[in-house]
Amino acid sequence: QEARPSFVGVDLEWSEPHAVSIIQIAVPSRAFVIDCVNRTPLFMSVLHALVDWLLKREDITKLFFGFPNDLLRLNMMFEKQGKTFSTNDHIASVVDLYMQRLRREQTYVPRAEQTPLGREALLGEAVNREDMDEVRRLSETVPPHPPEEDLTEQVFTVGGHHSLASMTERYLGERMDKSLRASNWNFRPLAAAQVVYAATDAHVLLRLEAAMRERGIYPQRVFGCGPRRPWLQAAWWHDGAEAGEEMPRELAE
User: What percent of the chain has pLDDT above 90?
Assistant: First the structure.
């Protein structure tokens, strides 16, 4: 029995007037392309149950590229069945590769008071505080050369990728053919090239996430707060109805 994948790539393709034409779901070993055009109400109900289950799974990280827009498209598609996703659905563990990420690096930095610019800044701060003892100490101390260094951690913001193709070229060293992006996704049957294109768009999200994590580049934000219990949710996740619900007394003790 296969272990449940920890990462799943999810992507959508559409052509007007349909909100969503196909949904692509990729795991490391395979990719699924799900047809959403002119389906029966029963099919759409089953599809909603699948998407709802996937988005709420806390132990599976869903990788999107432009998650807010994709969520809007999903809501537009399922609205006809009277089923949409809102804050009450507790969507969990969603990472948007379009958003900025953080890279943490450990590096050695010279001690400030042992460098010319650092000593000048410290002297200025001491003068502003009228701390003459500190001014005298810094003035009389002869800094060593080269200056001593301390191990510290620096955090850099990584982002600015406006397309999936540019991210793929940077982190994977490969060029994506996006010529089929504007093709007609409502015509049936889909061309084999369209199916391969759609599956690749979802699968490449898994490779990008792995490549960035290998470089120490991690998500700055994960959509969804995980716990379904209102008192465990972060404050920004509550709506007006849930805000007043408190932790049960027996759990608080």
Answer: 52
